[in-house]
Amino acid sequence: MKTWVTLLIAIVAETVATSALKASNGFTKLLPSVLVVVGYGTAFYCLSIALRTIQVGTAYAIWSGIGIILVTLVGVVLYKQVPDVATLIGMGLIVAGVIVINLFGKPVGH
């Protein structure tokens, strides 16, 4: 369970960093730029810990699937970026893939 919490922390940190990346305006704004560096540092550190027991492909699929949804939600709320139907369908397919991997795959290595 601890491994999955660590992966979730990595995903949230990456979402914060990606969202701050837009707000940093090409690293011209200090606070968002600091959030980018700290967020990505935290994200990759936590991901590296999670990869001790989760297969890299599985971890990355979960990271990508949840990350895409979270970043899109942040884009809608903070930046008023509304995804079109094709984007929503594609995101749904990604989430479906993550569900299939978790239900039918072998996510824990070693």
From TrEMBL:
Coiled-coil zones: none
Compartments where located: Cell membrane
Domain of life of the source: Bacteria
Keywords, ordered alphabetically: Cell membrane, Membrane, Transmembrane, Transmembrane helix, Transport
Topological category with respect to the lipid bilayer: Multi-pass membrane protein
Parts of the chain that traverse the membrane: 30-51, 58-79, 85-105
InterPro entries linked: EmrE-like (IPR037185), Small_drug/metabolite_transptr (IPR000390), Small_multidrug_res (IPR045324)
Record family assignment: Belongs to the drug/metabolite transporter (DMT) superfamily. Small multidrug resistance (SMR) (TC 2.A.7.1) family.
Protein name: Multidrug efflux SMR transporter
UniProt source species: Hymenobacter citatus
Lineage, broadest ranks: Bacteria, Pseudomonadati, Bacteroidota, Cytophagia, Cytophagales
